[in-house]
């Protein structure tokens, strides 16, 4: 019973208070009149570096879909690496379930031992 009386008293006072309240627009303390900051204005650290690189047309963390190459000697598949060699897996046919693994070394384009597609190792610097 005391709980009901207390609940009723609270709801009546909040209803009276709400009828006198005037809605005011909210202001952000750090917006300085510009509104909500954009991702570029808010980004820091590695995220900021990635956004700046994407604006320049670079792909620092290989986030975008890789460019397709023909796989010929004139237009080999590009394989980025931070070292002088990298292991590569080639699926020689579209419906093949076996992967042909081979080492790719820096220098000229090399061929897959099974299908003959050409691959070339390109040195890639890490952005950080």
TrEMBL record:
Key words of the record: Acetylation, Membrane, Metal-binding, Mitochondrion, Mitochondrion inner membrane, Transit peptide, Zinc
Presence of keyword Transit peptide: yes
Pfam families linked: COX5B
Molecular function, one GO term: metal ion binding
GO biological processes: mitochondrial electron transport, cytochrome c to oxygen
Main location: mitochondrion
Highest taxon of source: Eukaryota
Any single Gene Ontology cellular-component annotation: respiratory chain complex IV
Amino acids binding Zn(2+): 90, 92, 112, 115
Subcellular localization, as worded in the UniProt entry: Mitochondrion inner membrane
PANTHER family xrefs: CYTOCHROME C OXIDASE SUBUNIT 5B, MITOCHONDRIAL, CYTOCHROME C OXIDASE SUBUNIT 5B2
Protein name: Cytochrome c oxidase subunit 5B, mitochondrial
């Amino acid at each position: 019973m005391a709980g009901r009386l207390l609940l009723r008293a609270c709801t009546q006072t909040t209803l009276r208070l709400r009828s006198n309240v005037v809605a005011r627009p909210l202001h952000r303390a750090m917006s300085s009149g510009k509104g909500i900051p954009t991702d570029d204005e808010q980004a820091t650290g590695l995220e900021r570096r990635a956004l700046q690189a994407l604006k320049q047309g670079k792909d620092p963390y290989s986030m975008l879909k890789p460019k397709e190459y023909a796989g010929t000697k004139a237009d080999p598949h590009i394989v980025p690496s931070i070292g002088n060699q990298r292991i590569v897996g080639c699926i020689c046919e579209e419906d093949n379930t076996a992967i042909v693994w081979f080492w790719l070394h820096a220098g000229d384009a090399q061929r897959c031992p099974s299908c003959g597609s050409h691959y070339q190792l390109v040195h890639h610097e890490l952005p950080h």
